[in-house]
Design a protein that fits this description.
The protein is α+β, with helices and mostly antiparallel strands. The protein has a single domain, classed as Heat Shock Protein 90 (2-Layer Sandwich). Helices cover 47% and strands 22% of the residues. It contains 5 helices and 5 strands; from the N terminus they run αααβαββαββ. It has a 5-stranded mixed sheet with strand order 1-2-3-5-4. Helix 1 packs across helix 3. It starts with 7 loop residues before the first helix and ends with a strand.
Length: 177
């Protein structure tokens, strides 16, 4: 999937995946209700509200390519579980393509160093600073040690920081207005 115009089949797949994920969350709530585990019900409903609040903040960035990239992430990168937090109400539309370019760059590099049999947790924080918007990616998991010191990844971009239990990637874009 590019970040341009999506094919109808891609839109349908995205909607199906979104619906599937929501149904899984609702089934958890229903299961806890039937077991009368009301504390867990409250916890899962709170998680669901938090999820929708983050999704609303993502939509309010007014960056359609970035929004689609994020929404399509679970379909494209199945071995990564994504969590994100958007801490800006700034209009990101002018930097939309730059954001997606950086995100794609990160994932292209990650796919060369991750173990195909492992699952990874990725957390993305979008933070508004005084003069810039900062994007922080934290990826938890074990990377293929043979390729970990990949010259292309480690040396060509100082924004990568490989650690024992994961990777940190950061980029910043100037804030307009």
């Amino acid at each position: 999937m590019g970040v341009g115009i999506m094919e109808k089949s891609e839109v349908i797949r995205l909607l199906q995946q979104y619906r599937h994920d929501l149904m899984n969350r609702m089934q958890l709530v229903h299961g806890y209700l039937t077991m009368k585990k009301y504390e867990k019900v409250d916890e899962k409903i709170e998680d669901l509200f938090q999820y929708f609040q983050e999704e609303r903040k993502l939509m309010n960035t007014k960056a359609p390519s970035f929004i689609l990239w994020m929404m399509y992430f679970p379909l494209r990168y199945k071995q990564f579980q994504l969590e994100y937090h958007v801490d800006t109400d700034h209009d990101l539309s002018e930097m939309d393509e730059s954001i997606v370019s950086e995100c794609t760059y990160l994932m292209d590099n990650l796919l060369t160093i991750c173990n195909k049999d492992n699952l990874y947790e990725m957390k993305i924080d979008v933070i508004e600073e005084e003069q810039k918007i900062e994007f922080n990616f934290l990826v938890n998991g074990q990377f293929n040690r043979k390729i970990e010191n990949n010259k292309q990844t480690k040396n060509s971009n100082p924004n990568f920081l490989l650690q024992e239990d994961g990777l940190i990637y950061r980029f910043m874009l100037p804030r307009n207005g």
